């Protein structure tokens, strides 16, 4: 992606052009909304063409600034197209509020509320369509070009995972021993300052991938890149952004101490609780017929001889145990010897009805009671059994960190990793849980809930 330098800072040219294009789209949306509204009541606008042009410019500028404020002109949005659509809606809402405040503060500017509302709707439709087309025709606009300085071994697993929107422009090996061309990445000779190599390759960021850094870092060149507006990333920060996980292999106490995130703001927690109460109560009422049918199906399969629900102890926030209630999806003798076992793929203990309930997540619906009681949240790490938590917390010192937030009906790890059936799976899911604990917010919760719909509809991640 080509970059240009403005006042000593490198900006991505395609995204600048996108901002200009969307500014024109927003201005035309205002024009169309105004014309539609005025035609309903009169044949002409109440102001001249000069004033109309000023209003169009105002709307275009304010909406573009609002889009920029929520990160829509940054390459490779982590949330992809779905996240972009949510951000567009938020940006236009903020832009509409800003224009409303301007018209209130400056009496000479008169924009009817109906016209402003119509502008927001048309702008949302146009911007969403534009980005959808660009995602299909020219996805590189939203991709970051990375320059690796060091070796590829640190990021081999990222490349193997096919991190979304990741383009490796090349690698600048600092020693011949560090060069391992396992992924067809072009080798760029270190025959010029790194800032010149980076700009010539059109990269947006530099990944510092060096295991042994004693005397190996070209600090002055890296500092020059950083001061020129080219970010220099550590492997853990790179993995966190590209894969949405906190990689255990690179996790250190010092990184946890200095890393951003882990916010437990009062307002965020209050909004999360209010949302949990409203959503759980509403979903409980709406899903009552489904739960009644599920209970009947379980009872009929067993000839009305066994209970349709089961309760099991799980570990909640800060390690406090609580009991979850779920529809029974396994035989009543699934753990006849009293020994806790992981559920596995094609587990013979799962009944026919239970298999359907698990794939559709209907078996989880009784846990809405735990959400209403405050023991769980809608979004959070999966609540695990105390036997597993105790064992894994001893095996890995960071496992207990996932208990810093309430467990949830759905979560980041459930979306990103298949249903875990081994200790190794649990540790891989821990990497996604740590990402959620570090970055949880209302926006991330909304994104997870939207993606959960896909999980429910297509049975992704279910056993």
UniProtKB/TrEMBL annotation:
GO molecular function: undecaprenyl-phosphate glucose phosphotransferase activity
Pfam families: Bac_transf, CoA_binding_3
Record EC number: 2.7.8.31
Ranges for domain Bacterial sugar transferase: 272-457
Compartments where found: Membrane
Keywords linked to the UniProt accession: Membrane, Transferase, Transmembrane, Transmembrane helix
Membrane topology: Multi-pass membrane protein
Enzyme class per UniProt: transferase
TM helices/strands, residue ranges: 12-32, 52-73, 85-109, 115-135, 277-300
Primary location group: membrane
Keyword Transmembrane among record annotations: yes
Family: Belongs to the bacterial sugar transferase family.
PANTHER family according to UniProt: COLANIC BIOSYNTHESIS UDP-GLUCOSE LIPID CARRIER TRANSFERASE (PTHR30576), UNDECAPRENYL-PHOSPHATE N-ACETYLGALACTOSAMINYL 1-PHOSPHATE TRANSFERASE-RELATED (PTHR30576:SF0)
Protein name: UDP-glucose:undecaprenyl-phosphate glucose-1-phosphate transferase
Organism lineage string: Bacteria, Pseudomonadati, Pseudomonadota, Gammaproteobacteria, Chromatiales
Gene: wcaJ
